[in-house]
Every structure is written in structure tokens, then in C-alpha cells.
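ARCHIVE CARD
Drawer: 12
Card no.: 0347
Subject: one protein chain, sequence and derived structure
Cross-reference: see card 0346
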Amino acid sequence: MDDSRRASLERLLDRYAAAGEVETADVARLRAALAGDAWSRVSAPHVTGSALVVHPATRTVLLRWHPRMQAWLQVGGHFDPGEDDAFDVAVREAQEETGLGDLHALPEQGGRPLHVVIVSVPAHGDEPAHEHADVRYLLATDRPDDITAESAEAVLRWQSLDDAVRGVSEGNLRVSLERARDALT
């Protein structure tokens, strides 16, 4: 399975065009992590898949409150056993966290990553601080009113892409949101 996972991610990165020095460095770090077990939660960094969920008709984005990070962020998470495709992980996690069953890639995105970024995650409980090599996608829904948060603490909210760009605290998420906004124009 690790060879399949590694090959899948290497193909993805081979086709991905990083934009700028920071993202180029993050992609290089992710490539280097593939020499080990980049999917293990004890590896630094380890791979995650996430998504910005948009409703194209209203040009809004769905953000989730992450109590651990104390911030509004995109949805996403870790690979489960048997998963080797970052897009599939992003879709599964987005469905689990939003309750939206109709999520799909925008035709112009074609299931390609929107952004590859390494992010710091603070220590929590027994888990030490670590890094995620996050492969982010842009997913769309045609049924925005169907959202259901997975828990009372994981509040979901729709907001305009412009408001989201101005309001998020994470610079790397701002870049992802700007890319999403550009993809919808």
C-alpha cells in the first residue's frame, strides 16, 4: 500500500505547478517526506487532504470552526487505512464534516489540487506539535442549505469569498481562498 500511496502522490506532484518560492519549498518538503512514511501521524510533515467547499452560484465558501486551532478553516483531514488518493481523502473528509453528499470538482479544476502547503499544528493533549503537508482541493455543492456540522463545536458558516479572504487568520488559507475566488471568475 505504501508504494501505491507514494506513487499516487508522486504523480500528483509531477503534474502540479507550484506558484512562488514558499509553495515550491513546501512541495519539495513533501517530496522529501515521501521517502519515509508520509502518512503516519508521527512523521513530520505528514500528508493530509482538505477542501474549500464553494457554492458557485452565490460565490460563497463554507468554513468550519476548528476549536483546536481557534480559527475558521477549510474542511479536511488524515488519510484512512487503504486510501491512497488525496482528492478522495478531501472529498470524504468534506462530506463527513459538512454533511454535503453532492460535492464535486469544478470542471475547470478537473480534480487537480488548488494548493499544496505545509502548515503547523499546535500540540494538543498527548499529541505533540507537528506539521501537515496539506493537499487542498476546490469542491462545489449545488445544495448549500444541506450542511450539517459533525459536532456542536465544529460550527459551519457560509460567507462570501471576499469576506473570507479578508477575515481568515491563516495566510496560507488566504492564498487558497484567493485561488478559489479566481477559479470562480
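Annotation on reverse: The CA atoms of residues 36 and 72 lie 31 Å apart. The beta strands are 46-55, 60-66, 71-73, 75-78, 104-105, 115-121, 130-140, 156-160.
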